[in-house]
Design a protein that fits this description.
Elements lengths: L1 H24 L1 E5 L11 E5 L4 E6 L2 E13 L2 E7 L7 E8 L3 E7 L2 E8 L3
Antiparallel strand pairs: 1-2, 1-8, 2-3, 3-4, 4-5, 5-6, 6-7, 7-8
Amino acid sequence: MRYFFCLLIILATFSSCKKSKHNKLIGRWELLPQYAIDTLKKQVYEFDAANTLIRYTNDTIIDTANYELIQEFNKFYVDINELDIYNDGDYYIEKLNKEVLILQCYSPFMRKEFMKAVE
């Protein structure tokens, strides 16, 4: 009976972690430029509570996609679908707090670093 109770507590803890991560992910994130040419266009990703991703360039909506937050043990992934062939994929959440979001995809290798966008 004790093992069942401990298992129940562990499951409740991990499920609340996913909700906490999702709440931190929701909002507008400014993609940091990787190349000098990228400084000419400001790109913002907006993750909403309905699992829709909206991508802006210079404050104009350029496309939308679906995303899903996936938890595998203690790792979290953002699965982005229907954005475009270059950006769709499973992105491991390397860092997520109130100011910084770092996503990394291994196949194809891609790293995206964001700062919380100023509203």
